[in-house]
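Researcher: Structure prediction, please.
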Amino acid sequence: MGKLPGVLEIFESELKKYEEDIEKYKGKYSFNLDDPMLKVSKNITERLFEIGQTIAAMIIDTITPKSIGGDFRNYLSNAFRLADNPFHKYMDRKKILEELKEIYFTSKPYLLDLLSTPKKPAPEIDISDNVRVESREYLMESRKCLLADANRAAVVMAAVALEDIIRKKYEKKWGSSKNKSFYEVIDELFERGALRKEEKPLLDLCRIYRNFCAHPSDIIEVSPQLAEGILKTVVALINAHYT
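Model: Predicted structure follows.
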């Protein structure tokens, strides 16, 4: 079998790390909230959640009924919530892992088909050389999703890149943002004068569309034009903080 499309390869890698992390806790108990293992687990689960939202959007774009993608995202959310105390949640995390794997690997042939043949041209991405490698990768995967008409996934992946950049901007000056929502990070940066007045509504727009696209909703149609517009907006916002 050939090399997996990037977003699937990244997700499978993170899924494997999550599985290995679960097994570390089998038969272990700890009440020390400062245990370094907890920080590692949170980072692994956070990364799985970030990439998994894109997979959820692709499933919603591809699989019928759309609620399957919603179920997938719900399992991701449950995994994220359980990361705070994995010592006492071994069986719960194990069950979530099995549910994620079942939906993902059942959907995988359809996702491969979706991503295998570009269906249209997509905009070139001109990003500052100073942008983090991880964020650049997210943007390139967003572009590939756009090429494949996976419009929801393109929006989610672009917004993941944007959140990564904005959180790093916050953390560079004010410490960890782990316990803050993306909404709170944007608001605090604006209140501290770290965002321009015209940037905040654009950041909120991208955040809100990301949330819509990661859920099986028919409230809005995610057209190719909308997805491309979000990607271009994200690129402009990221470049604005690296020039």
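Model: The radius of gyration is 18 Å.
Researcher: Thanks, that helps.
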